[in-house]
Every structure is written in C-alpha cells, then in structure tokens.
Amino acid sequence: STVMSRIFRAVIMGPPGSGKGTISERIAHTFGIQHLSSGDFLRENIAAKTEAGILAKTYIKKGLLVPDHVMTRLLLPRLEEIARHSWLLDGFPRTLAQAQALNSACELDVVISLNVPFETLKERLRHRWIHPASGRVYNLIFNPPLVTGIDDITGEPLIQHEDDKPEALVARLRHYKDVAKPVINLYKSKGILHMFSDTDTNHIWPHISSLLSAKIPAPRSSAQSTP
Ligand code: G5P
C-alpha cells in the first residue's frame, strides 16, 4: 500500500525554551517517527570533541548561532542516513540559508512553529538544569528533580547550559526573532506552516496531536502488512 509507506517529514521551530524538545519527544513517542534535535546533535559533538563540536562550542557559549555552513555540513548527511524513515527535525533550520539548503535536499510536509511569550521563555529557561552525561533535562518548576541540584537516576550534580545563563539568554531570545522571520515567511508562502500560540505546552499539545493524526500515515497493522 503506497499510502502506508509514504515518508513524512516535519520541522518544529520556536525560540529557545518554547518547548520544541518536549513536544518533539511526545511526537516521536506518539507517532513513532525519528526525532533529530540540532541542539542535542551539537552537544553530542561537543562531548565527543569532534572538529565541528569544538568549533560549535565557542558560539554556543556566547549564545550565538553556529555558522550555517557548519550546521548544514553536520545535519544534511545525518538526514540522508535516515532518509528512508519519517522524521521530525527540531532546531534546524534556524536561518533562511539553512532553510534553503534543506529545501534543495528534500520536501517538507509540515512545519510547526511555536509562539510563546518572551516573559514565559525567560522564566522557563532560568529554571532549567541538565544532567550533562545523559542529557536529562529538569525544570525546577515544571519538572523538578527529586533532590534540588541532583540527577534522579545517577545522583550526580546537575548543571545549567552555558546558554541558559542570563547573559547569553537575552541575546538568544532577541536574535531568534530576527533570524526566524524570513524562515517562517518562506514556509507560510509554501502553505505548510502551522503556528501554535500559548504559554503552556500542555495546551498546545492536543492541537499538534490532532494535526499530525490527520497528516501522518497510520502505522501498518498486521492485517495490512505485505506477506
Ligand atoms: P537547542 O538545543 O536547539 P534552543 O535554545 O533552541 O536550544 P531549547 O533551549 O532546547 O531550545 P526547547 O527545545 O524549545 O528549548 O524547549 P524545551 O527544552 O522543550 O523546554 C524548555 C524548558 O521549559 C524545559 O526545562 C522544559 O521542561 C520546560 N517546559 C516545557 N514546556 C513547559 C510548560 O508548558 N511550562 C513550563 N513551566 N515549563 C515548560 O540549541 C542550543 C544552541 O545550539 C546552537 C545555538 O547556539 C543554540 O543556542 N544551534 C544552532 N545554531 C545554528 N543553527 C542551528 N540550526 C542550531 N541549532 C542549535
């Protein structure tokens, strides 16, 4: 059945702290598609001290975007590796140049844009702590660890991302809007942009879930599988 085996490709965009990671995990879990986070991918490269990782770290530390050519050279080959699966890209593209590079590599089905007020974002990121070895993310208000400052599983100390510290944070939020605008306009003009506005991820989620239920081919049931 051609419909069943169709591949679905989506992008989720939104400012730092808008809930891309949280919602992406729900999408991946609910619809069984691959989730690729540009931020996680960069952090893996930093931890592994790859050439791109070492370079990226100098930008991330300052709350700056990693240069487009570094991002596209990292991400596009990764997408090619999973080209036979449905996927959701989280955090890429961030700029018009990245969107154009992605455009020439593949056709997107849906772009989700999260629109969360500035004050809400500042408040959330201020309270975010991570366990660096595993990448587990806590929020002292939304999703606190059992013991403040300590990872639930390993008992190791939690840290803040360099780019969640106040100096880098305001720069990131301000910069995001300027850079995202032409990307959003591009996807709007293609008719694939879906914008969701709220202060609460749990309010946004049901709308995204019903959008994707209508767009993503249902997983094959045993009755439909080829003999
Ligand atoms: P990242 O890792 O892509 P950001 O900054 O875009 O980082 P971030 O910070 O990971 O995105 P998010 O994924 O949008 O945020 O949000 P999240 O992690 O799900 O939620 C944020 C926090 O809010 C969490 O603590 C969560 O628990 C909490 N939360 C979620 N929902 C709610 C809610 O409803 N209520 C409350 N109270 N809390 C909630 O990129 C990192 C850096 O890498 C570089 C850049 O330097 C970037 O800054 N980079 C790129 N550079 C160039 N081009 C690219 N394409 C790049 N991609 C990454």
Q: Please write the CATH class name of the domain at 9-117 and 176-215.
A: Alpha Beta
The main sheet comes to: 5 strands, parallel
Hetero groups: P1-(5'-adenosyl)-P5-(5'-guanosyl) pentaphosphate
Strand tally is 7
Strand content: 5-15%
**Overall mean pLDDT:** 88
Molecular structure report:
It is found in: Mitochondrion matrix. Its main location: mitochondrion. A ribonucleoside 5'-triphosphate binds at residues 17-22, 128, 137-138, 201. It catalyses: dTDP + GTP = dTTP + GDP; GTP + CMP = CDP + GDP; UDP + ATP = UTP + ADP; dCDP + ATP = dCTP + ADP. Its EC number is 2.7.4.10, 2.7.4.6. The protein has 227 residues and is an alpha/beta fold. The chain has a domain at 9-117 and 176-215: 3-Layer(aba) Sandwich (Rossmann fold), CATH 3.40.50.300. It is built from eight helices and seven strands. The strands form two sheets. A five-stranded parallel β-sheet has the order 2-3-1-4-7, with helices on both faces. Strand 5 and strand 6 form a beta hairpin. The longest helix has 24 residues, at 166-189. 27% of the residues are buried. P1-(5'-adenosyl)-P5-(5'-guanosyl) pentaphosphate (G5P) binds at residues 14, 16-22, 38-39, 42, 59-60, 64-66, 71, 91-92, 94, 98, 124, 128, 137, 139, 141-143, 163, 172, 200-202.
Summarize the structure.
The chain has helices at about 20-30, 40-45, 50-60, 70-80, 95-105, 120-125, 165-190, 200-215; strands spanning about 10-15, 35, 85-90, 110-115, 130, 135-140, 195. By secondary structure, the protein is α/β, with parallel strands linked by helices.
